[in-house]
Amino acid sequence: MKMTPVKGVILRYSDFKEADRMLTILTPNKGKIQVLARGCRRQNSRFLSASELFSYCDYMIFKFRDIYILTGADINDLFFDIRSDLDKFAYGTYILNLAEISANPEEGSYPLFHLLLYSLTMLAYSRMHPEDIANIYQTKLADILGYRPQLEICIYCGKPVKDVEGFSTVDSGIFCSDCYNGRKNGYNINMGTVRAMRYILDTDLDALKNLKFNPKVRDEISFIMAEYLSKHLEKYIRARSFIEKLGL
Ligand SMILES: [Zn+2]
Q1: 93-129 tens-digit pLDDT
Q2: Interval 156-181 mean pLDDT
Q3: What's the gap in Å between 121 CA and the centre of ligand 1?
Q4: Distance (Å, whole) CA 229 – CA 77
Q5: Residues 133 and 91 sit within 8 Å (Cβ to Cβ)
Q6: For the chain, what is the domain count?
Q7: Residue 226 CA, distance from chain mean position
Q8: I want to staple 29 with a disulfide (CB 3.0 to 4.6 A). Which of 13, 51, 108, 227 is the partner?
Q9: Is 19 within 8 Å of 41 (Cβ atoms)?
C-alpha cells in the first residue's frame, strides 16, 4: 500500500453511511481529488476537523481502485473566522464553488491552489471587504484559466478605449461608444471599474492586500465577473444564489 502526502483544501463533501464522508479536495499537484474519510463524523474521530469545509491540511492518502482513502491529516488552518461570519461564509463558499468548477481531476495547478489559499487567508484574517476578495478571486481566476478579458483596446475596432461603452461576456472584453449598436451581449460598465479590473490583473496578489473599492465599482466587478465566468465555465455557480438570497 503506497501512501501519498498531499496538501489540500476541502471544497465540498457529501455525507453517507453513519459517519463517513466523501471529500472533494483541491491540491496543488493532483488537482481536484475525491477522498473517502471513514468515520470522520464521529466526535472522537481524528479526522473530524480535517473533514470540514475550508480545512487546509497536509493529508496522507492512498489509492484504492478508483478512489483515495484518507489515512492521516495534519491541520494547517481550519479558517474558523470564515465559518463564524455569515458574509465571509457566503463569499467563502462561492470561492470554493468556483474553485471546484475550475479544477480538473488529477490535473495539478499551483496557481489555482495558491489563489484559493490566498483568498481564504484574506477572507479570514484581513479587514478587506469579503466581496472585494471574491472579486479579486474571480478576476485572477479568469486569467489563470486562460480567459483574461481584453480591457485595453476595443474588442470590435481595436482602438484604445478611453470612453468605455460596455463589456461583452461573449466576446470577452470592453467596447467603445463608436462600436455600440445596441449590442445585446453587452453590459454597462464604468471606466473606474475597467481601471480597477486592469489593476487587479496587472498586480501581484501580495500587493493587492489593502485594496478597497467603492461600492459602485465593487457591484460592477461582482456582476460582470460572475456573468463572465458562468459564460466561460458553462456551469451554473450554485453558491451565487446563496449570496443573492442574502442580498449581500
Ligand atoms: Zn470600438
Answers
A1: 999 999 999 998 888 999 999 999 999 999 999 999 9
A2: 90
A3: 40
A4: 28
A5: yes
A6: 2
A7: 11
A8: 108
A9: yes
